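Progress narrative, work stream C.
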Amino acid sequence: MKKLVLGVVVYLSVVLGLQAAPETLATPPEQPLPLVNTASAPNLPGSGDHFPKYRLGPEDALEITVWQEPDLQKEVLISPDGWLTFPLVGEIKAQGKTIEEVRQEITKRLKRLIPEAVVSVSLIRIGSNKAYVIGKVNQPGEYTTGRYVTVMQVLSMAGGLRQFSAGDKIKILRRVNGREIAIPFNYDEVVSGRNLEQNIVLMDGD
């Protein structure tokens, strides 16, 4: 009888001990985070990426940034005669150049003092943009926008198209490399939400 009781006590102890034992899961060792090279130069965006063919003009405003050089982050205004001034660089003829051409010129001049200079140039305001709207619009004429405008925006500034005008036969005249080209624009398509890529940003003199 004593052996039977003892066997029951031992059995219960084993069972209860198993139930009370906390469940343990194998935890994998922590993996180290990958190292990031914070010293490498970022890919600094500039508005030249979005408007590569825009030619700068008087009173255009640029933001010029040299990476890791807080004293070389400036907003500059192109003078009425087409020049800009930047620290350590001096004067640069900016009128008629693209944003990328100005960026390259600044980088070239800075290399003498900052060999690894990473320069970003962004166009933040247009001061000299003019568009000319002729034909069957309500208010034809010259429009000084002072900012980026699309075809639809300048048509709105001109009071919109007249009734019965041929909205599908609009042409944008642009001078490229000394010759004039005609870019087709279909007002009827754009206003109905189709082929919106036609609604381009106008350049000075369009």
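Work stream C, second folded protein:
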Amino acid sequence: MSAREELSHELQKHHHPASVRSMEALALRVGMSPSFVHGIIQGRLLPLEGELKALLKAMDVGERAQQRALLLHGEAMAELHTRARTSAKRPPATDWRVPVPPAGEPDPVLFSTVQEFVAGLEDVRIWAGEPSLRHLEERSARLHQQRQTAYGRVLRRSTISDMLNATSLPQMEKVRHFLQICGVRDIDAWVYTWRRVRTIERAALRRAA
């Protein structure tokens, strides 16, 4: 069992929602979307340390259990870093874009620029069978009705088009939802990469100022 799975197990021990409303109440207390909180508890998403601390506090988790959860979170983050270092040892592709693996979803961990990240989103769409923007919007609408979205509203085709042609990093919640409707399983790797590329982007802007 991975550290992220163990963390999910710990959170589930301390939260037993009786209804969607109770999940919404918890999300409201921590200032996050219900789908994001649900994704954390189910182990699909890995939060920042501050987000996890806020969630543990809202769930009234005891100090000892909090320490264990934070330890598992640190181990889960280390697993992501290890994966990134391992992937970085692979020979670079002839093109600057990482090709879509023949038997798996696109892997973002080698991306270091906005252009690479955005191109990777298009790779995801191709990997998903190259659905039309209208089809993706319809998938988003269905998930939104089921309250299972990583984004608080329907992802419109115009928004998806903007994301796939962006010159700056798209909003993280939009990226999460796009990956979700394309069937990506390892969304955490994309969130980790988004944060890394954003940090690089901000550092470049500061140097240029």
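Residues 87-103 have pLDDT under 50 and may be disordered. No further action is required on this item.
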